[in-house]
Amino acid sequence: MKPVTRINIERPLAYYKCGQFVGNQGWKHKPMKLEKDYELIIGLKETVYLQVGNEHYEIKHGDIMLIAPEVKYVGYAPSNDEVSFFWLHFIPRQDVLIDSNDTFMSLLLASAELQQRKELGAYVCLPPFFSLPYLDKPVMLMKQILDISHTSYYSTYAVDYLVTELMLELTDKYIQQLLQQQWLNKEHNQKFMQIVEWIRVNIYHDLTVQKIADTFCFNADHLTRLFKKNLGMSTIRYINTLKLSLVKERLCTTNQSIKEIAYELHFRDEKYLMKLFKSYIGMTPTQFRDTYTNTYLNSMTVDPDIPLPEHLQEP
């Protein structure tokens, strides 16, 4: 695990610029070095080959990268196919701390104490690189940021708070991963976590509770009791929650029809998908997609060399 950057958010992060990049086969990231801003990259499609300092990274769908100021980065290999990713630049308004692995884990494990939780909660915390299995909420927040940043909004703080919310969401997901890993290290939890990981890897297939139980030599009812005990939900609800996360992501980032999405994710049919979506999310897939129509149309690449806005420049 790499050192963790902690950025104080008692004042919101200052938005600078953002975009959704789409590059053809053979594209390479040009050499860059940030001055006072940070860059957040969220991988969407295919692989970005990026050297940051002396480290080589392959940024794929679900990968999150945070690049600090004063660090040189450049593409070290061309993309093999059409590549796409979100990029976002922001500037902290308050202090930034760099924690070693041990220091951050100590803070995290101590956060059960109210005072320690309050202290840690004043920061967003991310490593240089980590991965998320599902991007539904980060994608939705990025779409909102793209929309608001390209709209004549009466206050610049609107997008600042959205950027801060995105970083809080990523921090929460990252911390959940760390705590889950701590929990997994306990031997009696390893079997259950193998089942959870197997479901995640096979989520694109036609999964049933009985099929999962048979795979791991469990009784189906016993498996559901395990899920309720450890995750607070039944096995089938967990499966549906993961599948609907993928549905939301596709509704935000593709023009696929509901029928195509239902077929790809092995729902019974599009009518069943629509019924399930309304039950879990509280709106139909079409209503959900319409909410982000403007953000989808605004997801174009913005010139990364635009000057720093006056209110973010040094006095």
Q: What is the CATH architecture assignment of the largest domain?
A: Sandwich
CATH superfamily of the largest domain: Jelly Rolls
As for the CATH topology of the largest domain, it is Jelly Rolls
Helix content: 40-55%
Indicate the radius of gyration in whole angstroms: 21 Å
The total number of structural domains is 2
Can you describe what's shown?
With 315 residues, the protein is of the alpha+beta class. It has helices spanning 101-110, 114-120, 136-149, 157-184, 190-201, 209-215, 220-231, 235-253, 258-264, 270-281, 285-291, 293-297; strands at 4-8, 14-23, 32-33, 38-45, 48-52, 55-59, 63-67, 72-75, 83-91, 96-99, 123-126, 129-131. It has 2 domains: 4-156, Jelly Rolls, CATH 2.60.120; 187-296, Arc Repressor Mutant, subunit A (Orthogonal Bundle), CATH 1.10.10. A 5-stranded antiparallel β-sheet has the order 2-9-4-7-12, covered by helices on one side. Strands 3-8-5-6 form a 4-stranded antiparallel β-sheet, with no helix packed on it. The chain starts with a strand and ends in an 18-residue tail after the last helix.
Summarize the structure.
The protein is built from twelve helices and twelve strands.
Descriptive key words:
Arc Repressor Mutant, subunit A; 2 domains; four-stranded antiparallel β-sheet; Jelly Rolls; 12 strands; 315 residues; five-stranded antiparallel β-sheet; alpha+beta
